[in-house]
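Subgroup meeting minutes
Present: P.N., E.W., G.H.
Scribe: E.W.

1. P.N. recapped why we're keeping a running log of single-chain structure predictions: easier to compare across weeks, and new members can see raw inputs and outputs side by side.
2. G.H. added today's entry (606 aa).
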Amino acid sequence: MNKGYAVLKRIIQQRGRQILRDKKVLSSLIEDLMPGAGKEKATLQMAISAGVAEQFYALSDEAEAARNGRIARIEVYMTEELGLTVQRSAYVLNAFSCALGLGYSEIDLNESVNYKELAEKYEREGQRDIAALMYDVVSSVGNEEARYQTGTALLKSEVKEARQKGFEILKGIDRKDALYLTAMEYIEGKLTERDFTKACYYLTRAMPYPKAMLEMGKLYFYGWGTKPDLHRAIKLFERYIKESSKGRESGEDTDVAAALGATPFLIECYFEDILYTRSFRSMEKLTALADYHGWRMAQRYLYSYYSDGESDHYNEFLSEKYQKKLEKNRENPYVREASVRGGLGSLMMDLKITSALYMHSDGKYEDAAVNLRDHLILGEEINTEGREDNGALSYLLMGELFFRSGAVGRNLLRAEIYIKNYLDTVSREREPANYTNALVLYSKLLLEHKLGTPKWNSADKCLELAEEISGQPVKEEIIADMLKLVRYYGNRGELLKAVTCLEKAVDYGYRDDYSIIGMVYLNGDEGIERDVSKGFFWLKKFYDDYMMERLSLEEDVDIGSIEYQLGECYYNGLGVEMSHIDAMVYYERAADRGLEEARKKIDIAT
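Output recorded in log:
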């Protein structure tokens, strides 16, 4: 039983959470309720005097995701600033968390595993190999190397409890390889709850261990446990390849392993950096990977970059160059070498995509993303049987993950890159349903304000092609996105863009009140020049839709005012040929609806 947890819970129940803000009183109560000296009381008192209790008071009402991140930072503070061991920090975290009902599991500092008893238990059960390792733990106190060897051996055990003990041992060892293994357990979540924030902490301490740089780069790439940081990711991937090529990780072909582990990520980072900042260095590096090292992913990204007809970087010559390279270079030598050596190829690709689809449906988005990336790299670089669409489904699924967010972290630029790669790779005849979905998703990305000015023409072409393939009115799926753009630009005071987006929404099938388009053009507004022809066209279009019952209005519309305004247009020749007869028709309709201004116009005319 965690005595600290029981005492803290009792104090909080009696005094309320606010007691955590009073160091002196809380420390005095701990002293009274935990008489005598001991590790538990000394550790709690140190944490309280350093302000840990106040930090827990501040986070008690936060959302779960933010709270877990704050708890991890408190742990870093206790281990780095206060100098507590990992075990003592865990004890404090769990004592406060459980006392506040925040869901951490209990840890008892004085109940640190009695490995001798465990060894005797496994010996009685006939598991002599695990028993021997437990005896090694007992005899290795103070010997870091021996404890590391024992911990790694326990991690390889088939018995989960033994693996968990190995993980606990490694957590308490301050050496680079042990810190890396600890971080990987927090990333994979096999022996403990997945926690990317803690993984970042241990990986940072493990550097410059090469594998730690690779994994930390991935966390910066995905934005797991830390803010996404493209340039830090690039530096770490480049350092990993450089350090690995020195042979610091014995027992494996480091050049191939480094290329496979980091280069695909580097390619994506370089490409994003080019799109974000027009970085000459990243363009130089990406071109080298495409031209001199034969990476098909780099060739495909450069082809995508130079073939974008609506951009200022469109280049017909370079677009054709990389298209030819893609057709000619069927495989990447690094990946082919690893494929032959590791028995990868089409079978491994099938396993990767199957695992990814299962994890995606199960809500395990991080695992799905990892498997999807492996699948698209294998499919792109090995290009089994010379097909051009290997790994293409992974491009589509990765694009959806980054577009719709979830646990992966929303990244619209990356989503656009993946979806465009899918469309460039697959023929619409081969996968019509997926191709249609990709076209609709890509249209939404082309219209996304966070990626710059909406590309209306390209979006229209994609939607028209999607309707042609599916035979369905898919443009209606874009209406909600268009209305978001209307609100976004309206709130920013960019009225012309807001009105343009509303016009597009109507073109796509929006059937609620859009009469404001006509009124804005008729009267003009800030940033919008008066255009009576457009004003009359849109007002008349709305009125006709209303009278023909083609609208689905959520609120009542003052149709009399619209009839009056149409009468004004005909009477004064605003956007339409002057006609007093037609004007009187609309004035009378408005007057019949009770509009006094229309009645006055009729009286004057007669």
